[in-house]
Amino acid sequence: MPQDYSDYNSSGSSGGLGDALEPVLSALKQYWAVLLVVALLAGGALFYVYVFPKNSAVTVIVKVMDDPAGFDGAQVLLRSINGKNLVRSKNSDFGRAVFEGVPAGKAVLVVDAQPPFEPYEEEVEVPSGAEKTFSVQLSKSTKLVFLETDIPSEFSPSCSRKVAFSVFNNGTADEQFWLVADGTLGDFLEFPKEAVSIASGGRETVAAGLIVSASAEEGGIDGGIRIKGTSAELGKKFSVRKIDVAVSPESINYNSKEEFKDFLVITNNGGNTVSGISYKFNSGSRECASCVSVAAFGETRLDKISILPKDSARLQIEVSPPSVAGKYLGELVVQAGCFSKSIPVAIDIPAEQQ
Known about the structure:
Blueprint lengths: L16 H35 L4 E9 L10 E5 L10 E2 L4 E7 L2 E8 L7 E7 L4 E8 L5 E4 L6 E2 L3 E11 L5 E3 L1 E3 L7 E2 L5 E3 L4 E10 L6 E2 L4 E3 L5 E2 L4 E2 L4 E4 L3 E3 L5 E9 L5 E2 L1 E7 L8 E4 L10 E2 L3 E9 L6 E11 L2 E11 L5
């Protein structure tokens, strides 16, 4: 039987989908020029947005170092890299200066608060078509300088002692100052809360309490020591290192009236130098209050001995028994910096045989 092809159109496809798309295709053919213009305009708009930067709103927050309150009256300005003013300058009000219509790109932020504050300049990046906030900390100018003192650069866990910082006034006027510690160093040092007065050309020493917790981990300490309100800083790096020291003998037992001398060996197994050796003898008896002493050989003082890593120092123990028979107990405490070792002492003086 012959097949009926009347259901197929001239292109060889069946009706239905082709018939449904025909009006759409017809409209596209009729309005293709309009659609092309719309597409070009949309593409041009996107190109402009992403290629040509737009102006932005900039807020500058002005404070003085170590003072949480905002600083009023500072002249704030934004300049281009080549020195052209991008906006009219403003004075900070409640610690803020707000600028509208700032061109995007690199700029120089300038803040002038007049003496005693140092001028502030910083290169910044202003984003395109966005809000941006910059924070400024003004520093007071000062003639105070740190002098080199015997300040430890390495702290040890379970350490509690005093350290001293010397400051010199190189100016022509008397000043008052405080010391502060930044970053994690502030967790270890506690400075006096009262201001220190220093005369022109004078030198003052400030003592600080040093406390390092037993849980402190080894490594560098983030932060430094500054004169409060200024950028004048003690240029020294600090770190925490655990002390690993062995002491021999671990106990002292003596049974004689005669004086006795022995060696005390301190071995530094750690990675930092051990210094500042001292000792004390604790006894529960008045007769034996000074039975045990420790000394360095020769004319060297104990507190001048330094033990390098993986090295040792040999000291001399001297036992001077009391004249009265009996058993005397005590402890010899050997200290080196923040290290402390207790050595039990037992002295048994036998009674004379009749």
